[in-house]
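Lab manual, section 2.4: Encoding a predicted structure.

Procedure: take the sequence of the chain (277 residues), apply the prediction step described in section 2.3, and record the output as structure tokens. A sample record is shown.
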Amino acid sequence: MKFYIVEDDYSVIRVIENIIEDKELGELVGYSLSGDDVVNEILLRRPDIVLIDLLMPDKDGIQVVKEIRSYNNQIKFIMISQVSSKELISKAYSAGIDFFISKPVNVIEIVKVIKNVSEKIKMERTLKGIKHMFEDLELNSQRYKKRDREVKIKLILSQLGILGEKGSKDIIDICNYILSNNLKPSNIKISDICSILSNSPKAMEQRIRRAINKALVNIANLGLEDNLNDVFVRYSNTLFDFEDIKAEMDLIRGKRTIGGKIKVLKFIEGLLLYSEF
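Recorded output:
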């Protein structure tokens, strides 16, 4: 542990320093005989524990504790004073001290309090480490899930015969954006996301529409060859409206002059739905 002492009596500083060294409690990284201008020094040296007198010239210990707490709430404070006023001691605890020790300094009490505070610091650090570990695990889990869903989306686009299309990358980027920001597809506009992801949003939308339209044509052709084809059955009524698939099939047969229409948002929603399982 690293210690800093703020005390206007140098003899008390020497006593505490000797206790810290003799009992192998840690390292003294600095001391000050005044509370004035000590805040920056403490913040710079970043001790684990500050032992501080309550009553000092220029600035009292409570003021110093409050100022440091406003910048760094990890530092622990042990206040040492001759004051016996319950009101002042209560103010000291309210300011953020962890323990109050009455003067004259008692070696056994100093050692006991420092060990207690040190154990508290170690426990907090352990818990913080465990928390960070679980946060990292959760973050990695989310990354794997996102990567897994992207793989599934690519597989679907491959089954539709459009993975090599330029618009497919744009479709994947949009899906990743929706997943990363936990958006509900029903609450978004594709044009808005294109404006965020591209400097040429209209060109991006056109690439997407061309890719989806090619998927529509490919699905329609599959249906004409075999309407029980697994890809046709799975996607003809989820990524598209079946009426549009049927219209496209009729166009291919020469029964009509206009094919089916595509709905970009429905296509994206369908991709996200299938990638979830």
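Check your result against the sample. Strands lie at 2-6, 27-32, 49-53, 76-81, 99-102.
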